[in-house]
Design goal:
The protein contains 5 helices and 12 strands. It is of the alpha/beta class. It has a 7-stranded mixed β-sheet with strand order 3-2-1-6-9-11-12.
């Protein structure tokens, strides 16, 4: 079921024009920056989008303008985990195209998990109960499950990525908030 849903969502994203992606990305980022969770955060962890993912550039710019620290994941594929590092620019010269096209900061100090206030997580699909379906590596589920992380977990995606219900596993970590270009959904932490 997960494999079929991933394939369906990849096709949905591939069918979106670059102009649509840009416009919907801006709408979703504006919706997120209006939230108290963003306004009160001192450190925001964003993802650096892969092709056809919602672009977080406007979110990073808003955070920097507000004097916030922005961190982004550096992925360690062999160990199957990621580490947040300070991200001071979205310029290609400051980012490395890593494995599978995942961009990450070339330089930057690792940031303590306990000092992150808001984690913005991508997914291929989200449901209305606060679950997310990633690309299958489990990186964000493991990261969000860390006992040191006290941050608000916020999914960010297009309205087209929201489904009624996803198949879930025991290790899937629920989100606290989901923001799309059309709506904001909040979930209990239970």
């Amino acid at each position: 079921m997960k494999r079929a849903l991933r394939k369906e969502m990849l096709a949905t994203l591939a069918a979106m024009s670059p102009q649509t992606i840009a416009a919907k990305s801006l709408q979703a980022c504006r919706r997120l920056t209006d939230l108290e969770e963003f306004r009160s955060a001192q450190t925001v962890m964003i993802y650096l989008p892969m092709p056809r993912e919602l672009d977080t550039g406007a979110l990073a710019l808003a955070a920097w303008q507000d004097g916030k620290t922005v961190v982004a994941p550096r992925v360690f594929w062999g160990q199957r985990h990621m580490v947040p590092v300070v991200c001071q620019s979205l310029n290609d010269k400051d980012l490395s195209p890593g494995r599978f096209g995942v961009r990450e900061p070339l330089e930057g100090e690792p940031w303590p998990l306990e000092e992150i206030d808001l984690v913005v997580a991508p997914a291929l699909a989200f449901d209305r109960q606060g679950h997310r379906l990633g690309r299958g590596g489990g990186f964000y589920d493991r990261f969000l499950a860390s006992a040191l992380l006290k941050a608000t977990a916020c999914g960010l995606g297009f309205a087209e990525q929201v489904v009624d219900q996803l198949p879930i596993a025991d290790n899937d970590r629920r989100l606290d908030v989901l923001v799309t270009d059309k709506e904001v959904l909040r979930f209990d932490r239970q």
